[in-house]
Write a structure and sequence with these properties.
By secondary structure, the chain is mostly beta strands. The protein has three helices and 18 strands. A five-stranded antiparallel β-sheet has the order 3-2-1-4-5, with no helix packed on it. The protein has a five-stranded antiparallel β-sheet with strand order 8-7-6-9-10, with no helix packed on it. Helix 1 crosses helix 3. The relative contact order is 0.09.
Length: 276
Amino acid sequence: MMEKNLGRKVTLMVVKKVDFGVYLGTEEDRILLPKKQVPEGIEIGDPVTVFVYKDSKDRLIATTNEPFLTLGEVKTLKVKDTGKIGAFLDWGLEKDLLLPFKEQTAKVKRGDECLVSLYVDKSGRLCATMKVYEKLRKDSPYQKDDKVQGIIYEKSDNFGLFVAVDDRYCALISKRESYGNLKVGDRVDARVTAVKADGKLDLSVKEKAFIQMDVDAAMLLEKMNRQGGRLTFTEKADADFIKSETGLSKNAFKRAIGRLLKAGKIEIKENSIETK
């Protein structure tokens, strides 16, 4: 049955030519390749490589256009628009790809990029899902302390941030290794802290402690300079408030302030910290 090819690239034979295109497959099981898609000079019996999907009327149809994504793959696609049933993604074909609300790991909007894979829904239509954990590979070439890049595709209150390194390898930034206000769709530069026995990567967006202290201190100094050379709170502030204002834990904030104080960059007053 031609339905089994839905979402896949296949090579089929031309079995019939008509005014509005050619039919591919067999006399008993065939699919239309519209006229505007037919390669010049094609004849009955010739092979054609096509992608099989459904048109706007949910009819099975072939195209010689290259989709950005096929079944079994994971790719980053851009959101073209949103509607009542979900978002619509640009995947290189005339009919946009639906990303239903229930398949979104975070709400997306026009212009966003999201990591997705294809699936066939209960109605037999191709749709996208951001729930790609099971589709990601676990055979990355990376080792401990390697620097990597990836995209956050899901956020868990229990585990942390799920990341696809190089948009393909399975990785996690645990809650304690996170930094700042990262969210789904963000691209991150990270360091591999461990390679698990099953090949999954543990990541940190923090540098090693002695390096991170300098990074945090520089970030705080820049923040203070943008705010007229002062912070309107000190290390005595509530930990959640410090986190929301700076993206740092209370301990990391204290270390950074200590570094700036030692370097003579700041002075701590009763209710504020000011640059010198």
